[in-house]
Write a structure and sequence with these properties.
Helices cover 47% and strands 15% of the residues. By secondary structure, the chain is an alpha/beta fold. It has three domains: 159 residues, Toll/interleukin-1 receptor homology (TIR) domain (Rossmann fold), CATH 3.40.50; 46 residues, no CATH class; 135 residues, Flavodoxin domain (Rossmann fold, 3-Layer(aba) Sandwich), CATH 3.40.50.360. The strands form two sheets. The chain has a five-stranded parallel sheet, with helices on both faces. A five-stranded parallel sheet has the order 7-6-8-9-10, sandwiched between helices. β4, α4 and β5 form a beta-alpha-beta unit. It is elongated and about 85 Å long.
């Protein structure tokens, strides 16, 4: 599983059906590739892989990288071979495809062949230089993503199909949320909120001079906050994890972050789309993952939709998974590094969360601060 965080790249928007690119070595994973491609076809998704390139005028590496850029999701399968080196480069075709996918902001689902599975000698890398390169690449993948292991082609196909099906479902739910709650421009939202506050003040018979004084004070607070570069953080958690989330919120507020708590009730009482609305104005979303939050159907549905909306919209809040215990991490959250709090003392855990927020603080160039309502 990955480390806390190295860098964050926001995937580009996806429209229409998902197009999947299968990235792996070929000779040692021929059977696994066929099972995966068949699973993708059963989901009625577009797909691309080296088996179907055909004759093209472009060089092989150019064809591969263009297909990666034209896809929405990369399925990256790694076993014990590094593969052919790109002519004139020092990395394999598979790693070059992965790098192109990351740079283009594609979703990356990563699968490693289980080390305990017996393989033929011909399926194991023997070139010492390639062994080193393979080790480095696998280290990068485990640092940047949560890796899933597989044993057979059928096992891999089932896991890939499950992850893609959940991704499709999340995309559909997010689309439904957007239809119900169409995005407003920032200026329009600001004007509406100011208008609402002024009308409310008038109904309370607030004198004009006091109202103007309050507006001036708000402007001064805004300027002070901009100079301090406050980060707006949404903490997403199940009701069972409320204590640790609220303690983390208190620590983050002391570290100059504006906090919104979004408690997800597993009985489905949270209004659908509420979480997406909260995330729309945030810089960072910390998702607390426990057995309760990942096993609840209601939480998973709302969370998947919200996460899809965030990762598919440039400029949206960065997602930081906070792992509290051993759980099946949702597919979409496996594409980003997480903060591991399993077996960690509270003080160290809060330090790690604050460090993640501080990294986001350095990325923020302009913040319109305020208090969450």
């Amino acid at each position: 599983m990955g480390r806390e965080k190295r860098r964050s790249i926001t995937p580009k928007p996806v429209t229409g059906s998902l197009k999947v690119f299968v990235c792996s070595t070929f000779t040692d994973l021929r059977d696994e590739r066929q099972h995966v491609l068949e699973a993708i076809r059963r989901l009625k998704l577009e797909h691309e892989s080296m088996e179907y390139f055909g004759a093209r005028a472009a060089r092989p590496i150019e064809t591969c990288l263009q297909e990666v850029r034209d896809s929405d999701v990369l399925v990256i399968v790694v076993a014990h071979r590094y593969g052919s080196i790109v002519p004139g480069a020092s990395i394999s075709f598979a790693e070059a495809e992965y790098r192109a996918g990351v740079e283009a902001g594609k979703l990356c689902f990563v699968y490693f062949k289980d080390e305990d599975v017996r393989v033929l000698p011909a399926e194991v890398e023997r070139d010492s230089e390639k062994i080193t390169l393979l080790g480095r690449w696998k280290t990068t993948l485990t640092q940047e993503h949560t890796v899933t292991t597989f044993t057979t082609g059928q096992d891999l196909a089932l896991k890939v199909a499950t992850d893609l099906a959940r991704t499709i479902h999340a995309k559909e739910l997010a689309s439904r949320t957007e239809d119900d709650h169409p995005p407003k421009s920032t200026s329009e939202s600001v004007r509406r909120e100011i208008n609402h506050l002024v009308k409310h003040a008038i109904t309370l018979n607030v004198p004009e001079e006091i109202l103007l004084q309050c507006v001036r004070q708000m402007l001064r607070d805004v300027i002070d906050n901009i100079q301090g570069v406050r980060v707006r953080v949404v903490l997403i958690f199940s009701s069972e994890d409320g204590n640790v989330a609220r303690l983390a919120a208190a620590e983050l507020e002391r570290a100059s972050a504006d906090i919104l708590l979004e408690e997800m009730n597993d009985d489905g009482s949270v209004a659908f789309g509420q979480l997406s609305s909260a995330l729309a104005s945030a810089d960072l979303a910390a998702v607390f993952l426990s057995r309760c939050s990942t096993e609840s159907h209601w939480i998973r549905a709302e969370l998947d939709a919200a996460i899809w909306r965030q990762i598919s919209m440039p400029g949206s809040a960065s997602i930081v998974p906070i792992v509290l215990e051993d759980v099946d991490i949702p597919a979409l959250l496996r594409t980003v590094p997480f903060v591991d709090l399993r077996g960690v003392e509270s003080e160290e855990g809060f330090r790690r969360i604050i460090a993640a927020v501080d990294r986001k603080r350095h990325e923020v160039r302009r913040v319109v601060p305020g208090t969450f309502r």
